[in-house]
Amino acid sequence: MCPEGERSQREQLQDLSVFERLDGDPRKTSPGLAIKKFCRTISSKNVQALDVRPLPILEETLTYLLSFLDSTDHDFEVTHDFIFDRTRSIRQDLVMQNIVNHRAIVMYEKMVKFHVISHLKLRHCGNTPSILSMHYLNMEQLIKTLTSLYSLYDANRDSTSFYKNEAEFRSLYVLLHLNPTSRVTVDPYSIVVMNHFPLRHPCIKC
């Protein structure tokens, strides 16, 4: 799930998440634990073929990442930070390979749900500057992931048909653009979480 070169470099730099450490050692990991990190400076022109994960590996990696969502071994902000970065890397690999099929749609739907659930859970993690920053970045990536999902729906549309979950995810656009001066007193994302996936995180894995 992580290129060998990156894995070796991160071991040397002790740049391993707590979820990637072999027996808790910050200097050791394994092919089954290390997951490719998001890289802002990566270019499809310079990347090596071995550094880009094929679709089946990306699907497997996403399922593995989301299995940590209900983990109580660490504070949620630690879990969120790990999944947040590694799902960005998954999206990056999908884009570099121009994967825009139905399987990509399913993956994007799961990643949108991750960001929505994170929004609710982060609200219970306090109001420290670091948590507020996580809130902001999570919302930013929610919007980007949702926008990409809408593009995938449109690119794969057959005549006037709609995808099974499309209406649910289109409704998120409405909630994102609720008039801030309206008299809505309930957090819109709480509504989404409670109505569509209330504490049923296994729905992300289906």
Automatic annotation (TrEMBL):
<protein>
    <recommendedName>
        <fullName>SAC3/GANP/THP3 conserved domain-containing protein</fullName>
    </recommendedName>
</protein>
<dbReference type="GO" id="GO:0006406">
    <property type="term" value="P:mRNA export from nucleus"/>
</dbReference>
<dbReference type="GO" id="GO:0070390">
    <property type="term" value="C:transcription export complex 2"/>
</dbReference>
<dbReference type="Pfam" id="PF03399">
    <property type="entry name" value="SAC3_GANP"/>
</dbReference>
<feature type="domain" description="SAC3/GANP/THP3 conserved">
    <location>
        <begin position="1"/>
        <end position="181"/>
    </location>
</feature>
<dbReference type="InterPro" id="IPR005062">
    <property type="entry name" value="SAC3/GANP/THP3_conserved"/>
</dbReference>
<dbReference type="GO" id="GO:0005737">
    <property type="term" value="C:cytoplasm"/>
</dbReference>
<dbReference type="InterPro" id="IPR045107">
    <property type="entry name" value="SAC3/GANP/THP3"/>
</dbReference>
